[in-house]
Amino acid sequence: MKKSNFIYKAFSLYYEGFKNMTVGKTLWAVILIKLFIIFVVLKLFFFPNFLKNNAGEGNEAKFVGKQLVERADNQ
What we know:
Helices cover 79% and strands 0% of the residues. It is built from four helices and no strands. It is elongated, with a radius of gyration of 24 Å.
């Protein structure tokens, strides 16, 4: 690969920057841990899969349609 290539220069810039970080590595670790908590832990405990639990396999569209009609009728 040519060293004058734009992609190589951009990669080299970020690679050297992350390699020479001291405090930044700790901050990136904190960011990654927070993202893990947000997307994995909260999803598991606070956002259950209602379609899987209530509709069954292959009946998702019918379940969603029924729920929309019931909510429209209740308003």
